[in-house]
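> run fold ATP-dependent Clp protease adaptor ClpS
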Amino acid sequence: MSTKEKIQEQVQVDTKTQHLNEIVLYNDDVNTFDHVIDTLIYACDHTPEQAEQCSILVHYKGQCTVKTGVYDELEPRCTMLLDAGLSAEIV
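> ok
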């Protein structure tokens, strides 16, 4: 009877980690649900359902993360939200 020896290789994997930022949308008493929903669809590429859910969270919780990604991709989207009169920031 012969025995086979199993050899386990150790492999080092280099991973590049990117710091992800978030656009946080804040509640206000000025903008309507429809305006917030339309703006999220336009600026953040949300589906209508996703935009509606975010607007409800913002209304009841005071804030909601509406987009996550690298800063360079979020900055123009956040600018669109601000230009539409919404309160948002990148964190």
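The chain has a mean pLDDT of 93.
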